[in-house]
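Comment thread on ticket #2218

A.B. wrote:
> Attaching the input chain for the structure job we discussed in standup.
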Amino acid sequence: MTTTDTTPENGRNDRDLARHWAPGEHILWRYRGNGTDHVHICRPVTVVRDDEELLAVWMAPGTPCVRPVLTDGTPPHREPLETRYTKPRRAARTEWFGTGVLKLARPGQPWSVWLFWEHGWRFKNFYVNLEEPRHRWSGGVDSEDHFLDLVVRPDRSWAWRDEDEFERAQQVGLIAPGQARGVLAAGRSAVRAIEAWEAPFRDGWERWRPDPHWSVPALPADWDRTPARMS
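C.D. wrote:
> Ran it. Output below, let me know if you need it in another format.
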């Protein structure tokens, strides 16, 4: 159950604590359930860069995470689309398998860009995750996923992803009509950035590598806590 933290931390509120994090610090990258205040996805990550222009974080292989599953434990992607968003869910602890993911997000932008590699650091693709602009707090960033995504290949070609899920989310009321129009507008803006090969696509992040001395972040017991104040 999500707990509400209404008291300042160490005498300071979350606005004071939402500073720029230093490389190597551990924070939480979280998503709320659509239309709710309850966190249902939590991924501990390591800060790569954090400034006025960009937040970059690394999610290492083997990272302990929280993700939603159906009450019987079925992963949502294995449930038929017709009932995927209507059956009851619960939060489940799991582990990030496969290679790690580098996540890049510009303040106020309604998407983040993720980089995926094959084993042996062969770059696979960029992934544009359309989402609510992230809210910073003392322990990390919170957002809401908007279902629709884009995949960008190394040759700069791109394609929409999860259009069927985006449509279904609208049908069951998880995305309101006005919000859906905003998501599509954000997607078209991301496409323009891709076709112009703007930052961060042009910045060489596919050649980035994590510090070998970094440890895998732990999943805190209060991973679902509500920040005292959102920045």
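A.B. wrote:
> Thanks. Noting for the ticket: The chain is about 15% helix and 35% strand.
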